[in-house]
Every structure is written in structure tokens, then in C-alpha cells.
């Protein structure tokens, strides 16, 4: 009886000691979240302020003075719609290629035994160590030889099957029990059927996390699009944003610093919102995917 009575008391004492630590951790995480979100909130709110007020009173907020002038001028001066369209095309095409082929390649590396498998996988991993700038000139020469400069093919195909995606999917697929695959083969299932019916449902959380990372990487990609798509017709959203100040001053004689700043904030806000919505909508899948790709056993 004494032992049974003392056990709840010890549990309550441990809970009481852990409570301040938990509250301190939550307070720290809240402050950290506010520190990260404050610049985003400032940019979104400032985009609705008059351009002169952004410069004269950057931290002030007059609700009666909020306006859409920055957005109206930005849409008139900058081809941001074309940038969104090109980014959407590249995002859908390149993302689909990555999500389809990377798990297939990873499945082969994880579950098949063939000569040179480890050497080939090592070569895939080596590409992760190469800086992007090293690959730009050879890729650009290749695109020129193919006649693909300023085309969607050049924006989509290079880097579509990412080495990191193959590596991550291989780590996840390696944990799928071989007994499940052998049982499916005994039942007469084909190899592609085994992949779609057995492997895909198991790796779905990691695949969702990979999809979120792929969307973010393609959406934010700047270096390769600015090199291979120099024409305004093929410029992606990030390229349009990088040349936004020049477009504003070039399209409007006498555009001052405040006007450029207001339109920059308006364009940045429009570019930021889709990515925030995607992350908020898929954050649960993203977190589950990260855990599925990192936790063993």
C-alpha cells in the first residue's frame, strides 16, 4: 500500500517540476516564431501603405490611409502575371517529373541487387557536393547545342530528377520490409504493381514532405532561370522580381525611391502569399515526411 500511495505522489512531483520547463520552452518557441514572422507581417502590411509613408514612418500604421495604389502601379509597370505563368508551368512539369521518377530510382537502389549499384549510387551522391555554379556553364552549352535556350525544356529538364530526392526516398524505402515485397511477388504482382500498391502507401508521408520541398525549391529557384531564360517572355517569377526595380524606373519617368519601394513590397507580398498558403496547408504532411525520412526502426 505504501508503494502504491507513493507512486502517484512521485508522478505529481515530476509533473510539477516539468511544468516550468515546458512553459519556458513554449515561451521561447513563441518568441522565435514572432521574430521570424515579424518581417513577413511588416512587408504584407506595408504593401498597403502609401509609398511616402513607408519611407517616412516605416513602423507606423494608419488604417484610414491604407490603399491599393502600390499594387495598381506594380501591375502596370511589371509583367508579374507572365512570371507567375512561367513559374506555374515549370512547377507542375518539373515537380511531376521529380515526384514520379525519384521514388522509382530510389526503389531500384534500395531493393534491387545489380552490378555497380553502390558505385552508381555513390556517383549520385557525389553530385550533391558540386556547387550549382560549377554546372551552369556545361548545362548552358548543352542547352544551346540543343536549341533550348529560352524554352520551357531548359527550365524544366535540368535537375528535374534531384539527387537529394533520390537519396531521401532511398533511405525511406530501405525500411520497407522485404517480406512484404516477396509476398506480393508470390501472389503474382508485377514489379511496378508492387511499387504502386505496396511501397507507395508506406512512403506516402515522406513523399508528401518531398513534394513540399520540391515546390519550395522550384518556386524559389533563381540562378538557373536567370541564366537560361534571358527573355522577358520566359522569365520566371523570381527573375521578374530581381529586375523589378529596373522595370519600374524604366517604365515610369521620375519614379522615386518611395514609389519603387512600395511596388517592390507589393510584388514581394504577391509572390510570398502562395508559398505561405502551400506550407500552411501541407505543414502536417511536411513534418510527417521529415520524420519519416529521418527516424529509423
Q: Brief overview, please?
A:
By secondary structure, the protein is an all-alpha fold. The chain has helices spanning 2-46, 51-56, 69-77, 80-111, 117-126, 132-146, 152-156, 163-173, 178-186, 191-220, 223-228, 237-242, 244-251, 257-294.
Would you write up a description of this structure?
The chain has 297 residues and is mostly helical. It has helices at 2-46, 51-56, 69-77, 80-111, 117-126, 132-146, 152-156, 163-173, 178-186, 191-220, 223-228, 237-242, 244-251, 257-294. 77% of the residues lie in helices and 0% in strands. It is globular.
Largest sheet: none
Quaternary class: single chain
User: What is the radius of gyration?
Assistant: 26 Å
State mean pLDDT (0 to 100 scale): 84
Beta-strand proportion: under 5%
User: What gap, in angstroms, lies between the N and C termini?
Assistant: 39 Å
Number of strands: 0
- Judged by helices, strands and strand pairing, the structural class is mainly alpha
Write the SSE topology.
Blueprint lengths: L1 H45 L4 H6 L12 H9 L2 H32 L5 H10 L5 H15 L5 H5 L6 H11 L4 H9 L4 H30 L2 H6 L8 H6 L1 H8 L5 H38 L3
List keywords for this structure.
single chain; 297 residues; mainly alpha; 77% helix; 0% strand; globular
Amino acid at each position: 500500500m505504501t508503494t502504491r500511495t507513493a507512486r502517484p505522489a512521485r508522478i505529481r512531483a515530476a509533473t510539477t517540476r516539468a511544468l516550468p520547463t515546458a512553459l519556458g520552452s513554449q515561451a521561447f518557441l513563441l518568441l522565435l516564431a514572432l521574430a521570424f514572422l515579424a518581417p513577413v507581417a511588416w512587408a504584407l502590411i506595408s504593401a498597403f501603405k502609401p509609398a511616402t509613408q513607408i519611407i517616412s514612418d516605416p513602423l507606423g500604421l494608419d488604417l484610414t490611409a491604407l490603399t491599393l495604389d502600390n499594387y495598381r502601379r506594380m501591375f502596370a509597370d511589371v509583367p508579374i502575371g507572365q512570371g507567375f505563368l512561367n513559374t506555374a508551368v515549370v512547377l507542375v512539369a518539373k515537380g511531376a517529373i521529380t515526384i514520379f521518377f525519384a521514388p522509382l530510382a530510389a526503389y531500384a537502389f534500395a531493393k534491387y541487387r545489380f552490378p555497380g549499384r553502390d558505385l552508381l549510387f555513390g556517383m549520385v551522391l557525389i553530385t550533391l557536393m558540386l556547387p550549382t555554379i560549377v554546372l551552369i556553364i556545361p548545362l548552358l552549352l548543352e542547352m544551346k547545342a540543343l536549341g533550348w535556350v529560352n524554352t520551357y525544356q531548359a527550365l524544366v529538364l535540368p535537375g528535374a530528377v534531384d539527387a537529394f530526392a533520390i537519396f531521401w526516398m532511398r533511405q525511406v524505402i530501405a525500411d520497407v520490409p522485404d517480406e512484404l515485397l516477396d509476398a506480393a511477388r508470390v501472389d503474382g504482382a508485377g514489379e511496378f504493381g508492387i511499387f504502386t500498391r505496396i511501397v507507395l502507401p508506406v512512403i506516402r508521408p515522406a513523399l508528401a514532405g518531398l513534394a513540399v520541398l520540391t515546390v519550395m525549391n522550384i518556386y524559389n529557384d533563381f540562378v538557373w532561370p536567370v541564366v537560361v531564360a534571358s527573355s522577358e517572355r520566359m522569365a520566371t517569377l523570381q527573375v521578374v522580381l530581381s529586375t523589378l526595380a529596373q522595370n519600374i524606373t524604366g517604365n515610369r519617368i521620375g519614379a522615386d525611391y518611395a514609389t519603387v519601394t512600395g511596388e517592390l513590397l507589393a510584388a514581394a507580398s504577391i509572390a510570398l502569399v502562395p508559398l505561405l498558403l502551400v506550407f500552411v496547408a501541407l505543414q502536417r504532411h511536411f513534418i510527417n515526411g521529415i520524420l519519416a525520412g529521418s527516424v529509423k526502426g
